[in-house]
Amino acid sequence: MWSFVVIGRNASASGEYAIEDLPGSSGRTDVLLRCIRAALLYSHGIRRDVRVYLVLCGGPKAPRTVRVDGLTARFIRPDERSLALLVKKTLARAPEGGLSQFVEIKPGVAVANGGVPCVMADVGEAATYVLEEDAPDLRTQGRLTGDSVFFLGDHLGFQEDTRAALTSLGAKPVSVGPVSLHSEDVVAIVTNELDRFREAAPVPEVE
Amino acid sequence: MWSFVVIGRNASASGEYAIEDLPGSSGRTDVLLRCIRAALLYSHGIRRDVRVYLVLCGGPKAPRTVRVDGLTARFIRPDERSLALLVKKTLARAPEGGLSQFVEIKPGVAVANGGVPCVMADVGEAATYVLEEDAPDLRTQGRLTGDSVFFLGDHLGFQEDTRAALTSLGAKPVSVGPVSLHSEDVVAIVTNELDRFREAAPVPEVE
Question: Taking CB atoms and an 8 Å limit, are B155 and A196 in contact across chains?
């Protein structure tokens, strides 16, 4: 299982934004939405062994986290508008209150009232990485086997307390090359690297 | 200079589609739009030495090609809706008739009434590649230097006559790994590989 955790510093946790102006009204939730596509979808298929967590740290009701699980998710469409509607509807149906466990809103799509700690409790035992500029290249890390979790920032990068939390979790800094890229491109490149590791050492497919 | 040429088999050449339903109404122009972002934008910047060509082969007025040139383009936004509006407005202002040279509609954004031949006349001398499953890995091709052009299909792949034209141009088949990916992810991965080549052998920056 691979998990991508994308942390949106200002991304709206309430879902109260205009679909017609995602960049201007959603705290740049559009960046996170594009990561869903990059992580889960390949040509005419969905990656059944991948989960994406969008940690929404902006506005009322923050932090909240939306989880999309490739194993059970259905009808995940690649376009940004469809993904925006999916996340917006999910947030609108999120339970109120302090419930910090994930609650499934529709097949494969769940929400929790909390941020990184909720994610860590949910992923359980896994090798943990944080994508960062100038960190050692992912290609030099040897073969990734077993469950892996990758933390990424959005266009604003991590807040100091988030970065400190990731350090205390033992997340290993890795990078994907010499240029600072959009989060969704980082997801695509990490996924490609994992595909290549897997091809070299296949694991059984999830049914 | 790197150029990406994305061929949309059914992508609307007239631009007569609904922004609110790109996948359903535009011949999957959404796939091509996402390639603009992946090719041109990195974190807080635009790649000045990259061009993207969207070859629109669907509906009335096909084929037409929209070119976005990172050197002179301004205000290229990353979200799909903004990119859709940019392409739609460009097509609405395209000159009628047989003019097969690129005509600039706004800074860095041009359109031509034609397909692959227009693109080839425009790029001039360059090493030409075609992205294809099961082709030799781009990583094994040695260092890419000089001008390079990469042809990609959309979710439907190439039509037979297009593929034949690419063969006759001497386009070299390359792949980016074991899984068939979305076009925009292929662009991101090829770009990452080019970034890595360039880091190993820097070229002067474009002013």
Answer: no
